Amino acid sequence: MSIIIGTQENFQKEVLESDVPVLVDFNATWCPPCRALHPILEAMSNESKNYKIVSVDVDEEDILAAEHEISSIPCLIVYKNGEEAERRVGLLPRKRIEKMLEK
């Protein structure tokens, strides 16, 4: 499964109503750590069917970013059963991201 582009229109369905855990990556194209994180998330999304990854560009979806109180990027939030389960800010190694999804 490839990374899903998150928008105001599909966030409810893709994230909050998902049957599987969802890792949401709040990012921006001008952010170097965000760009460094993208290949890691792309590889993860192609290798697992146990979760999905949604990417939200904070510049294009500023209302969505504000609703989720994003103040620094990259910001990774894991949602399970429609609820925020864990949040981390910054460039993280793949193993740490995978642990977020396992909890």
Please identify, by name, the CATH architecture. 3-Layer(aba) Sandwich
Instruction: Please name the fourth-level CATH homologous superfamily.
Output: Glutaredoxin
CATH fold-level label: Glutaredoxin
Number of domain modules: 1
Task: Tell me the radius of gyration.
Answer: 12 Å
Helix residue percentage:
25-40%
Mean pLDDT: 95
Please explain how this structure is put together.
The structure is a single chain. The two termini are 21 Å apart. This protein has a five-stranded mixed β-sheet with strand order 1-3-2-4-5. The longest helix is centred in the middle third of the chain and has 16 residues, at 32-47. The radius of gyration is 12 Å and the shape is globular. By secondary structure, the chain is an alpha/beta fold. Strand 4 (75-80) and strand 5 (83-89) form a beta hairpin. It has a single domain, classed as Glutaredoxin. The model has no long low-confidence stretch (mean pLDDT 95). The protein has four helices and five strands; from the N terminus they run E-H-E-H-E-H-E-E-H.
Structure, briefly:
The chain has 103 residues and is an alpha/beta fold.
List the topology elements.
Blueprint: E1 4-5, H1 11-16, E2 22-27, H2 32-47, E3 52-57, H3 62-67, E4 75-80, E5 83-89, H4 94-102
Parallel strand pairs: 1-3, 2-3
Antiparallel strand pairs: 2-4, 4-5
Which structural traits does this protein have?
Glutaredoxin; five-stranded mixed sheet; 4 helices; 103 residues; alpha/beta; 36% helix
